[in-house]
Amino acid sequence: MTDGGAPQTRADARRVREVQAAQPPAPEPQRRFRWVRTAAGRVPTSWFAGIATALLLVVTAAFGGLATVDPPGPSTIAAGDVHVSDQYALTVESAYLQDADPDAGIYLDEGERMLIVRVLAENLWDKPQPTAGLTDNITIDGLSLADARAMRVDDATASETLQPGMPVELDFRLRVEDGEYHDGDTLRVTLNDLALYTGTFVMSGTSWTDPRPAAELTLQIRDAAQTEPS
């Protein structure tokens, strides 16, 4: 029977079944996914961060790992170029050989010559610094400036202290064996930057330490007997 009471024919019944078959199925209950949401809500947030980090490391390892970045090496400069650090402005100007010259305060034993490295130095710190400390800032392959005597070029007197903001041209004089160096030979010079250390507890005060190569240059030696120094 139909809703109006009229008898339902077989054709009517078939059309009803066709209409019902064409309708989309009713949605299934969401209970099957409810346990997933519940479990996710109980996982600590820190676990997700750890999982993300682990995945990052796996991906990074697949592409060669976490590569370390080496600090930049020393720059290459030329004689006469200024190198500026927090401590000094240094310009290595020239190197030359010289014989004994009592008028210039150069006294040598027989078979010796004087190798002189000329440097323009300016103390950029706010305190006086000993000239001897420049041996940490300037190193020369095969030579030790600790054995050199630093003399002012303007008055040929020994330089003990560099005052702040006052450029001074210095000759570092080294005794060498006659024939050890010749006109045209080269010296490899490295300029080092130092870090300012402030002492605490046991040690107090400040000092410049930890020299690290910052610039390199090559000096050509001139023989003063053949070529006047610049």
Automatic annotation (TrEMBL):
Top-level taxon in the UniProt lineage: Bacteria
Record-annotated membrane-spanning stretches: 47-67
UniProt keyword list: Membrane, Transmembrane, Transmembrane helix
UniProt-annotated stretches for the region Disordered: 1-30
Protein known as: DUF4352 domain-containing protein
